[in-house]
Amino acid sequence: MPPRQRLTPADRRDQLLAVGARLFAAHPYDDVQMEQVAEAAGVSRALLYRHFPNKHALFAAVYRQASDRLLAETRIDPAESLVDQLVQGMDVHLDYFVANRNAVLAANRVLAGDPVIGTIMTNELDALRARLLTVLPLADASAREAVSGVLKSWLVFVQILCVDWLTEETCTRTQLRDICVGAALGALQPLLPADSAAAADRPQ
Prior knowledge:
Elements: H1 9-26, H2 34-41, H3 45-51, H4 55-73, H5 82-99, H6 101-110, H7 115-135, H8 141-167, H9 173-188, H10 197-200
């Protein structure tokens, strides 16, 4: 093992997260071992366990960090059409899903039902739904409640469809994105003002 580089605790944690993210992306969850993470990071197992007591804790931290980054990179801008915002958000997420296929499948399949991972996913979906609600032309509180319910169901639909697509690519990436965007527009159109440009837009 090469000499360990001296880092602050925060920098060391970031380094371990980066190594963990890389390994969880490259290998199935069950194949990643904490000893492997320590060796790749150039640290002792004791130091690794000081930051993350087990593989589940490391994966959860990696996935929470990824979720935060996806939210930061997803633009919600009232000046843009709904379709443009949906396309941009889908592209950001699909880029991550494709590059981190094993990690996404681990979170949604291997660790399905895990309360910690489930909370991370739920928090991200709720944040995305809340952001979209702020830019949609809603007539009143009743319309907001109806649209919120549609968005909640749509986000779960997208999650399931994308995970299935990662398992077996039955269509192209662009087709997958446009299916998801089209489903949102079709579901929302009856609830938005008839003259709303957002309701009339369709993916190109």
